[in-house]
Write a structure and sequence with these properties.
Elements lengths: L1 H15 L4 E15 L9 E11 L4 E15 L4 H6 L10 E18 L4 E23 L2 E8 L7 E13 L5 E13 L8 E12 L2 H14 L3
Antiparallel strand pairs: 1-2, 1-9, 2-3, 3-4, 4-5, 5-6, 5-7, 7-8, 8-9
Length: 226
């Protein structure tokens, strides 16, 4: 699904961009964890999706979109963490990590200053579509990787808040770089009120067809009868 979304973005991005709407690809790396467990160890994972920036006023935007391939969770689960996740404890000579795939949808207010630095904040929502505990072990040059799926143990809906900042580079087609922190408010595990998602995101956004759309508008204005 992620691949098809990227393809559609590349094909039709220039049709969606206008002076009051920017559309493009968003991707990067994030470092998730889950509070309320014995472990708080993070792992790194890549994400990708698409975004929309709707202009409200001259420098104020609504930023939204979908990360269609994104992962939250936590690394290095303890024995009790593994039990809480509802899966079998296999061996003490390996590491366990909880991994949860979500569709993540931000609805942020975004303000771009005159120096192209921007800040953004607002609610963010998630829909869980896959979850598993991954056991990894590398002993005597033998690698073992076992997945135990536990989607039914994870709440299907996520909701929280995000806050971030970044810089937009007009000279590189409007590409921007940013950092964002997400804090979830919904219990990760059903019936465990102390487990909450959080993650640090390093993101890159790339408008698709924005320059082409801008040039077309400029050309139409030039050719317009006086």
């Amino acid at each position: 699904m992620a691949n098809s979304q990227v393809l559609l973005t590349l094909l039709f991005g220039d049709k969606l961009n206008s002076p009051d709407l920017e559309f493009g690809l968003e991707g990067g790396v994030n470092f998730p964890a889950v509070s309320g467990l014995d472990t708080s160890s993070r792992f790194s994972t890549f994400n990708i999706g698409f975004y929309f920036d709707f202009r409200v006023k001259e420098q104020l935007y609504i930023h939204t979109g979908v990360l269609v391939k994104s992962k939250l969770g936590v690394n290095k689960l303890s024995v009790s963490d593994v039990q809480a996740a509802g899966v079998n404890y296999i061996d003490e000579n390996g590491t366990y990590s909880q991994k949860i795939n979500y569709f993540l949808v931000p609805v942020f207010g975004k303000y771009i200053f005159s120096n192209n630095i921007f800040v953004e904040a607002g609610p963010e929502f998630g829909l869980r579509y896959k979850a598993w505990v991954e056991y990894e072990n590398d002993t005597d040059d033998v690698e073992t990787n076992i997945r135990q799926y536990n989607k039914d143990m994870i709440n299907p809906i996520e909701a929280g808040v995000g806050i971030g900042a970044g810089y937009k580079i007009d000279k590189v087609g409007g590409m921007s770089f940013g950092v964002k922190y997400f804090q979830g408010f919904v219990n990760v595990y059903k019936g465990n009120s102390s487990t909450k998602n959080n993650s640090l995101f390093l993101a890159v956004t790339l408008p698709i067809g924005a320059k082409k759309s801008h040039d077309k508008i400029e050309s139409n204005n030039i050719n317009k009868p006086q």
